[in-house]
Every structure is written in C-alpha cells, then in structure tokens.
Amino acid sequence: xxxxxxxxxxxxxxxxxxxxxKCEQHLGHNAMYWYKQSAKKPLELMFVYSLEERVENNxxxxxxSPECPNSSHLFLHLHTLQPEDSxxxxxxxxxxxxxxxxxxxxxxPGTRLTVL
Amino acid sequence: xxxxxxxxxxxxVPEGAIASLNCxxxxxxxxxxxxxxxxxxxxxxxxxxxxxxxDKEDGRFTAQLxxxxxxxxxxxxxxxxxxxxTYLCAVNPTGKLIFGQGTTxxxxx
Lengths: 116, 109
What we know:
The complex is a heterodimer. By secondary structure, chain A is mainly beta. In chain A, 3% of the residues lie in helices and 55% in strands. In chain A, the strands form 2 sheets. In chain A, strands 2, 4, 5, 6, 9, 10 and 11 form a 7-stranded mixed beta sheet that branches. A 4-stranded antiparallel beta sheet of chain A has the order 1-3-8-7, with no helix packed on it. The longest helix of chain A is centred in the last third of the chain and has 4 residues, at 100-103. The N and C termini of chain A lie far apart (32 Å). By secondary structure, chain B is an all-beta fold. Helices cover 0% and strands 54% of the residues of chain B. In chain B, the strands form 2 sheets. In chain B, strands 2, 4, 5, 9, 10 and 11 form a 6-stranded mixed beta sheet that branches. In chain B, strands 1-3-8-7-6 form a 5-stranded antiparallel beta sheet, with no helix packed on it. In chain B, a hairpin with a 4-residue loop joins β7 and β8. The chains are: A mainly beta, B mainly beta. Chains A and B meet through α1 and β10 of A and β5, β9 and β10 of B.
C-alpha cells in the first residue's frame, strides 16, 4: 500500500448505528486530518492530529469522535448521525502540522457516507 | 463574505485553448496560496503553490498572484481533455488551509 488509504470506500448507515472510518498513511508523516466534503461546498476541516495529539477541533458535533492511536492511523467514530452528515469524508496527511510542510497535504480516496 | 471564493463553473474550453481559473480571498494577511486538482470520484492533489506576487510557471500551468487585489489565478495552457477536473483554490492565512468550493473545468476535444 502506498500513500493514504481509507476504508470503507462507501458506507450506508442508519441514524442509530455506530460505525468507524479508518485511515492509514504510508508516507511517514507526522500530521493527519479529517475533512468533510459536501456537494457544492468547500472542504471543511474537522480535526487535526500532530504526533497523535489532537491539535484542532473545528466545532465538530460530538457525534463525530476521532481517534489517533499512532502517527500512521486515524479513525473517525460515528454515532447517531443525521442525514445532513451524508458527505465524502477525506483523510489527509502532511509531513508536519505547521509551517510550509503543512500545506502539502496528501489525501486519501475518501469514504462516501450516506446516512438514512 | 466567503473566505475563499471561486466560480463553481463549469468552465468549458476547447482542447488546445488556455483555461483561466480565478480565486479571490478575504484575509489580506494571507501569505500562501495553493491549487489542488480533484478528478471526479478522486481525492484532491496539490499541483501548484505560490507565495510571492507575480507569476509562477510549472510546465503548462501558471499560477498568478496579486496580493493587492486579493486575487490568485491558475492558467492552463494547451488544455487537454485530461485536465477536466475540479480545481480547488486554497489559502493559508493563519496556519490553516481554507479551501474554496472549486471550479469545474471541462476541456472539449
């Protein structure tokens, strides 16, 4: 595996379900991110992790819970989601979470989430 | 006012023409500017960045920055059908990347 991988690629869940999205980066980077991409809207940064420590949480509802067990893996735990949470969830990584290296982010293929 | 604004398009150009993609931003203190390309069903990838006023060329791509007008553009010369994608402008004003909604480019053979 190379680059940034995400599983599953597609997920359909009910509002009462609990599911998790997984991201793995094979680039040796120290920073990882979760973004939400909705149709016709800009990419929204959700969470930033630097060396497994959460450094940014952009007012994301508590029904989204991130976990970063090590610098290569990032999870997004989902529970009691709403239909408006349906979107493409992208994971990204960069060498560092600050400075010039922060700006070159490598994205995974995304998980297309549908909440019924 | 949106922090980073782009015309969503689609922008349609014939093969071989110059495609011009535009972006304006609101934070006058922004120092770093980026263009990401996103093919349909794929993830964004960084293709250009520019930090100084003026032009920066890389192959068929030229990024143009005018900080006084808070305007950044991407020119694609000799457009190819394979350039058809959504182009995301991103600005870093305070250590955080802010993305525009993207402009969809269609290059017709």
